[in-house]
Amino acid sequence: MKRLIFILTTILSVVFFPSCDKDYFNLDSSDDSSDYWITTGTVVLTENGFYIHTDDGFNFVQENDELSTSDLMDGMRLLFYYEIEEEATNSELFDYYIDIKSYEEILTKPIFNFTEETTEEIIDSIGNTPIHIVDTWLTDDFLNIQFEYYGNNLMHYVNLVFDSTNPETENGEILLELKHNDNDDEWTYVNWGIVSFDISKLQNEEEESIKIYVRSLGYYDQYEYNQVLTYDYLNDDLEMSSVYNPTRIYNGLPDSIIK
Questions:
Q1: What percent of the chain has a predicted confidence (pLDDT) above 70?
Q2: How far is CA 183 from CA 41, 186, 187, in A?
Q3: Rounded to an integer, what distance in angstroms lies between the CA atom of residue 126 and that of residue 96?
Q4: DSSP class of residue 248?
Q5: So what's the pLDDT on residue 34?
Q6: How many CB atoms lie within 10 A of CB 15?
Q7: DSSP helix/strand/coil, 221
Q8: Which residues, in sequence order, are bridge partners of residue 159?
Q9: CB–CB of 44/78 below 8 Å?
Q10: What is the DSSP letter of 240?
């Protein structure tokens, strides 16, 4: 859990970040940004309400009712902006009482499988537009990917593809590729987003963990990222990317349109 860094260079602010975090979250400009944090987690519903289990292992419970959370569902993935009220020293379940300032549901999707029967039309619809992976991390049965891409105002599609005709690398890792279809959108702005892919169907009953190799097609028609992650689904010992860092979540919550 790391603090969100708001200090950006003037050039980056003008070119890449047309609005600041507080504008996005509709926060009062007088608020002290040093008191606020941003992170990702999963909603857990209880008889008395809900709490959020964060990707870095904390249990947060909302202390006040100023923000409507009636649309939260069990298992929903969230990117949320919050202030810590106090440590939950009187609870065995919760770590902190927090005040959620704003939140956004993280898009969740299953893996898309290419098989010998997959038509060219379907493959084309998945797309082959360049997309840059910023970061990856594992939590529960989700592979979470933070990414950047060029676009303007059209809907973009992102999918994580497992190709059964080319399932593994030469080292035996399961090969997964982030695919992108920009629907012929103009390359005007650098947008970013986060998506959580359910990878539970990759589990092997004979193994406690598997190695997965994650890549995407970059802007120079070459595969990039090319990282190996360990999906440890029996020991619940999930591996975060060595570069996972919430401070790289730049512009508040995602301002892109993805599906």
A1: 78
A2: 30, 9, 11
A3: 41
A4: G
A5: 53
A6: 11
A7: coil
A8: 179
A9: no
A10: B
